[in-house]
Design a protein that fits this description.
mainly alpha; 6 helices
Length: 129
């Protein structure tokens, strides 16, 4: 009988941190957890500022928008890593199978990319006047 060991991205980050691979752990934490959360927060701030009341100056909001939009295309790198791991570790000894959370992660990435793409940055400037 084979033993099934289920791991998550966060478990991998903790394992790498404790094992001494702290730089890799920080990079994976940043790309997989911190960046998506910050993108959601940034889009929430931009949308709130466009429709209700500006939180910052229009210059800072424009920079926030440009950063959020430019990071969007790099967010799918986690999914590419999962696909590479699936093809690399498909032996009798080890197998990588994405869990259900991978679908939700893809949805978050796609929806934040679309929200940044369809957001009209001119709305930021309209509220400043």
């Amino acid at each position: 009988p084979t033993a099934l060991e289920i791991n998550t991205i966060f478990n991998g980050i903790v394992y790498m941190w404790n094992d001494g691979d702290r730089l890799i752990a920080v990079i994976i934490f940043s790309a997989s957890i911190m960046v998506p959360v910050l993108k959601i927060i940034a889009m929430a701030v931009l949308i709130y500022s466009a429709y209700f009341k500006p939180v910052m100056s229009a210059d800072k909001m424009s920079v926030l928008y440009r950063i959020t939009e430019s990071i969007g295309r790099w967010s799918m790198i986690d999914i590419f890593v999962i696909i590479i791991l699936m093809s690399s570790f498909h032996t009798n000894m080890a197998r990588v199978v994405p869990g259900g959370a991978a679908i939700y992660f893809c949805l978050v990435v796609i929806l934040t990319m679309l929200s940044a793409y369809y957001f009209d940055p001119r709305l930021i400037w309209d509220k400043q006047q």
